[in-house]
Amino acid sequence: MGQEINGEFLGDAYKGYIFRITGGNDKQGFTMKQGILVNGRTRILFRKQGTTFRPRRSGERKRKSVRGCITGPDLSVIALRVVKKGDADIAGCNDVERPNRLGRKRRMRIVSAFNLDKKLDNVCKYVVHREVKNKAGDKTYWKAPHIQRMVSEKRIRRKMALKRGKINAVKASCDAAKTYEKLLKEYSAEKRATREREHADKKKAE
């Protein structure tokens, strides 16, 4: 996996092409995994999320069978990526133009991709819109992804409201603490006065 091969080895139709091996499956359907230098299948103890393993809870480990990253005659599928285009087009691969189904979602990446102005241009117009029809097929509407990390006026108002709420909570807590200290002082003064009065009454009685 990761090695580049000449397309002429696959046939005259791929003359001039250079492919990179990105993966594959053996005849039983086990996928190739990068980093396992074995020309065959082996069992690996997985302990964290990665390719071919997704833990269901933290700390979970599992031993699974995977195919090594060295190609061999036991492979039924080999995934290739075109690194360099050759003389002729490949039927069904690069001879047709397919629209970009997914686009960039993060605000700054959209700005940098289309060279937009941060303050003047509206990035909502530059996301990929997808055409969707209802079940009856008589109505068509468009869907667009939610733009990430976009600071809108609504977000600014919300942040200001949250900040104002925190400041008001701190002020209310300080006022409540001052009121409580004042009540404690009054209570201690009343108790001291009562104690002094009782002491004076005892002295008079003697």
Describe this structure in words.
It is a single chain. The chain has 206 residues and is an alpha+beta fold. It has 3 domains: 4-84, no CATH class; 107-143, no CATH class; 151-206. The protein contains 2 helices and 7 strands, in the order βββββαββα. It has helices at residues 107-114, 153-205; strands at 4-6, 18-26, 41-46, 62-67, 75-84, 130-133, 140-143. A 3-stranded antiparallel sheet has the order 1-2-5, with no helix packed on it. It has a two-stranded antiparallel sheet with strand order 3-4. A hairpin with a 6-residue loop joins strand 6 and strand 7. The longest helix has 53 residues, at 153-205. The model has no long low-confidence stretch (mean pLDDT 91).
